[in-house]
Every structure is written in C-alpha cells, then in structure tokens.
C-alpha cells in the first residue's frame, strides 16, 4: 500500500480520533477502545510494508500494533494479510476505521470541512480476530478512505511472528500453493522405516525449478510452519555455525541430504533431548521412505513446500506413525567353557541374544571386544545385573542360585560392523583368556629411532606367556583405516609370514619390572610401519595389543 502521502494524512486522523471519542455513545469493545486510544499515538506507531514479509518480535502481555491505509485513488482495493506464529499461540485482530457515510476521504477537505468532521459520527469495527498457532490468511476489499490497525498479543511468553501484507493479489504468490487435499499419507510402515506420499503442489507443477519439498521428522509433535520448527530446534539449546542463517534452510542442503540437529552442535547424526530431529529435502519428489528409525517409536512427519527464490514456505497437514516392534531376536544357548564369536552388522542386525542356565551358584562371563563398539546387558531371571559398553577384555563375576537363567543381549552402538567373543564358565581359576597387563598399549622411543631401526616396549604380567611381534609397511593414507578396522581378536594366523618379526616368552613377579623392549632392525629410512604384539595364554587364545604406527628417520 503506497504510503507517500500518509504523513500528511496523520494530523487529520488525529482530529478524527478526537471526534470519534466524543461522537460514539454506544458501548464499545475493549479492542475498539484500544484502537481509539492508540489513534493518538501515530507518531510512535509502525507502518506495515506492502508486498514484503515482516518479522515481528512480541514481548509477553505487551500488544504490538501496525497501521496501513489503502492506495489513494482506488474505490475498491483487494488486499490479503498472512500471519505465521513461530512458536506459541498468539492473538491477533484487524480493526478498521472509516469516515461517516457521504464524507469525502480525509485529505481532500479544506480546514473548514475538517472542522465539520469533528461533529460527525465515525465507525470503528473489528473485521477479523484469531487466537492460535496456525498460519492464517485474511483476504478483504476496501476503499481508500479506510484506515486499518493490526494488533498482535502473546500471553504465554516472548515470541516472534511473520506478517505478509499485499495489495497486489494478481501477480502471483509469495507462498507456494498447497493442493486441495494437503494431507500426508502413510503408505508403508516397517521396523525402521516409514514411507510417505502427498499430493503435488500446484506451484511445483508451474514452477518446478524454484520449488522443492522438505520433510521434517521428529519424536515430539507436528509443526504448523517451517518458522515454528526452526524456533523449536533453536530452543533445544543447539548451537548453529554463523554461516547457518536458518537451521532448516534448503539452500544449505543437497537433495537427499539428512541433517540431524543436536542440543550441542549441528552434525550429520546426533540427537536432541527430545529425540531425533532430521530434515530431508528431496526436490520435487512427492514420495519418500524415511530410513534408520527406531523400532516401536512414534514419529511425527511434516512436509513443507519451499520457494527457493523467496525462502517462503507452506506446510502440509502433518501426520504421525509408530514403527513396528523389533522382532524377538533368536536366542543362542551358551555352553560351559565354549567361546562364542558374535558378529553384528550395524545396519541390519544390531542385536544378538544369548542365554545361559547356571549349574553352579557362581558364574563368570568373559567378553573380548574384537571390533567396533558394543554394549552388553545381562539379566538374571529377568532382572538386570550388569549393563555397560565393552572395552578390551571384560570379566563379570555373578553369584546367584542353581538353574538361574542368565540372558545376555549384545547391541552394536555404531553403523559399522562390530564383533565380540563371549565365554560363560563357573571356573574362573581356569580362564581360557590370558592374564592381561594393566595396559595393552605399545610404546615407541623417539630418541632410539634410526633410519634402519625402531625400539618398542610393552607391559607383561606375572604369568609366563608368549608374545609375538609383527610389522607391516603402510602409507600415510592407510593409517586411519588400519587402526579402525583392526580385529583385536584375530591372531597371527591372519598375518602374512613375512610380517613376523619374533616370538618370545617373559614374565616378572614384580609387576613394576614386567616390561620388555625390542629393537626391530632391517627397516627402510623415512618409512611408516605398523607394529602389533600378540599375547598368548595357556589355552592359546590370543589377545592383540593396540597397534602402534612409527616412522623411521629420513636422515641419520
């Protein structure tokens, strides 16, 4: 609405407001009284821009008012106002002031005619009011002699909203259009997936290049606007990088890219206190299968149609669905003294269950973590007796009754493959695994490095055991892969014969002196080597020390 002449118009309306207060005798509503009282404060009020989305910040219990008038010279002018709450429900209303019938528009009168308007009756009316957190649009027609007031109020807490006013209703829409049926259909539910479909937006069919769909998934509730979703994610305590202006901005996403928003930082996969929140932008596809969900969990799904040129969006009617329960894992019986090797595929099979019936009152469980990350949960007759993340070699000594049923559930905590060896036995004094030192780290001595040799050391135990040393030449870009993919349960049988350096026996009753060193010679200058030490117990089951990478000196 063109406001170039509006400031000349204000003094006249101040006089009209005075007339209004004296001329209307009938009881008025509180909104109308508020409108009249605020007509005296034009110079402290705000003008609402035409054709532009405006962000308005509201303080709790403090109303905020915006004014606008219609374009001069038009008898009737269409206009629309769209208000989008970005958090809590708000109250908002539109009031209109019109001069008495038969009077010319203010601003076309001389001083004498203005004075007559003091005695004339005027009209203030509420033409629209709303309370809630949905996106609402008001469309109306009015003459240029009308003056409008928009009043906004938040009674719950400080918040912000966006308001879009336009008098040009013929040259397209800021917001993408929703189809006649804006519902999201759930067309498939699995244990870890939900498949969704929705009807195409008319905007996609007309302007497919600048429009795309974005899906928001969370475990809390549906959101009625993208603005509300962004506010909720920010309020969870997450920290956004400075370059991320909007947490859900489609400009920052490639098609099919998933963003998980945590309560600490923005990352690819993480969780907030209220569960996962993720967004997927999939271009103009109107079907999508959401992967990697948790079984037996209720999720809420919202689809937004986003205009990439204006960043304006419209929300489909959200839906929800509960994933299917995880099928009961197959239970494997553990036998006394027999080592059972469990391999978990982090993507397909994350759980594995073992069962053991006690034939003695005291039972010992041994877990040797071979690869990845695994959490163990042990119950006795349905009651939890141990639960923790495994690391290296771990023993649990449990005391119960004869014929107690122990259940062991192993769960992979990462998407890569994980594996563990499990042993249940009543005889702890005859362990199949070797006695371990305090640390399984291998130490190298920088000062003893030469161009052709490296000196390493490791801890031993009070029990005489066999130790075998292996070396392997590697490149810089292989270090991370070698260290991460190392199977700590595999023995020297998986190594090439040429990698073997030596085997030796040693022990010391004084643990402080149970340390051995070896100088490995015949190496090449300036070369990276991966060193491994294997410890063998009485049963011959090996334990692998943590691999050590050392580089020989280039020049000596």
UniProtKB/TrEMBL annotation:
Q: Which GO terms of the molecular function aspect are on file?
A: heparin binding
User: SUPFAM superfamilies attached here?
Assistant: Fibronectin type III
* Localization per Swiss-Prot or TrEMBL: Secreted
Task: Tell me which residues make up the Fibronectin type-III domain.
Answer: 176-313, 434-542
Pfam families for the chain: NDNF, NDNF_C, NDNF_N
Entry-linked InterPro entries: FN3_dom, FN3_sf, Ig-like_fold, NDNF, NDNF_C, NDNF_Fn(III)_1, NDNF_N
Cellular component per GO?
Answer: extracellular region
Query: Which keywords accompany this UniProt record?
Result: Glycoprotein, Neurogenesis, Repeat, Secreted, Signal
Fetch the SMART domains from UniProt.
Answer: FN3 (SM00060)
Instruction: Identify the main location.
Output: secreted
Check the UniProt entry and state the signal peptide residues, or none: 1-21
Q: Which GO terms describe its biological process?
A: nervous system development
Biological role stated in the UniProt entry: Secretory protein that plays a role in various cellular processes. Acts as a chemorepellent acting on gonadotropin-releasing hormone (GnRH) expressing neurons regulating their migration to the hypothalamus. Also promotes neuron migration, growth and survival as well as neurite outgrowth and is involved in the development of the olfactory system. May also act through the regulation of growth factors activity and downstream signaling. Also regulates extracellular matrix assembly and cell adhesiveness.
Query: What's the name of the protein?
Result: Protein NDNF
Species of origin = Spizella passerina
Q: Which gene encodes it?
A: Ndnf_0
């Amino acid at each position: 609405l063109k406001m170039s002449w509006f400031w000349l118009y204000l003094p006249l309306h101040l006089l009209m407001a005075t007339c209004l207060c004296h001329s209307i005798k009938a009881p008025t509503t509180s909104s109308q009284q508020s409108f009249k009282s605020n007509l005296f404060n034009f110079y402290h009020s705000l003008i609402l821009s035409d054709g532009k989305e405006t962000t308005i910040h509201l303080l709790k219990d403090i109303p905020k008012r915006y004014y606008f008038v219609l374009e001069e010279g038009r008898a009737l002018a269409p206009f629309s106002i769209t208000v989008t709450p970005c958090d809590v429900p708000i109250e908002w209303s539109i009031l209109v002031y019109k001069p008495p019938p038969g009077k010319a528009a203010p601003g076309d009168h001389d001083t004498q005619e203005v004075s007559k308007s003091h005695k004339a009756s005027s009209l203030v009316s509420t033409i629209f009011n709303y309370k809630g957190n949905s996106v609402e649009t008001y469309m109306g027609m009015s003459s240029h002699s009308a003056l409008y007031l928009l009043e906004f109020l938040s009674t719950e807490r400080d918040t912000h909203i966006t308001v879009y006013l336009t008098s040009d209703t013929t040259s397209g829409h800021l917001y993408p259009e929703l189809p006649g049926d804006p519902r999201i259909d759930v067309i498939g539910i699995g244990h870890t997936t939900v498949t969704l479909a929705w009807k195409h937006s008319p905007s996609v069919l007309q302007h497919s290049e600048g429009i795309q769909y974005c899906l928001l998934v969370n475990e809390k509730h549906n959101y009625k606007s993208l603005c509300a979703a962004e506010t909720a994610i920010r309020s969870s305590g997450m920290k956004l990088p400075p370059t991320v202006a909007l947490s859900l901005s489609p400009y920052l996403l490639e098609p099919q890219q998933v963003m998980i928003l945590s309560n600490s930082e923005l990352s690819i996969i993480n969780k907030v206190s209220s569960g996962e929140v993720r967004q997927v932008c999939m271009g103009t596809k109107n079907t999508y299968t959401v992967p990697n969900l948790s079984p037996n969990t209720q999720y809420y799904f919202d689809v937004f149609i986003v205009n990439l040129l204006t960043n304006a969006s419209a929300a489909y009617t959200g839906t929800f669905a509960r994933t299917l329960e995880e099928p009961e894992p197959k239970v494997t019986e553990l036998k006394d003294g027999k080592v059972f090797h469990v391999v978990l595929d982090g993507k397909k099979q994350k759980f594995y269950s073992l069962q053991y019936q006690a034939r003695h009152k005291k039972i010992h469980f041994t877990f040797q973590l071979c690869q990845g990350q695994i959490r163990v949960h042990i119950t006795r007759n349905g009651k939890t007796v141990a639960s923790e993340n495994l690391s290296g070699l771990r023993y649990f000594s449990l005391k119960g009754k004869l014929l107690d049923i122990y259940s062991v559930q192993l769960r992979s905590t990462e998407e890569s493959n994980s594996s563990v060896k499990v042993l249940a036995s009543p005889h702890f004094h005859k362990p199949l695994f070797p006695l371990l030192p305090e640390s399984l780290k291998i130490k190298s001595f920088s000062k003893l490095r030469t161009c052709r040799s490296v000196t390493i050391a490791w801890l031993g135990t009070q029990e005489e055991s066999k130790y075998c040393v292996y070396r392997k030449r590697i490149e810089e870009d292989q270090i991370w892969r070698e260290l991460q993919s190392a199977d700590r349960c595999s023995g020297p049988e998986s190594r090439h014969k040429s990698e073997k350096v030596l085997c030796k026996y040693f022990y010391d009753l004084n643990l402080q002196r149970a340390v051995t060193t070896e100088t490995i010679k015949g190496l090449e200058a300036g070369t990276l080597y991966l060193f491994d030490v294997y410890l063998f117990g009485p049963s011959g089951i090996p334990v692998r020390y943590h691999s050590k990478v050392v580089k020989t000196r280039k020049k000596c």
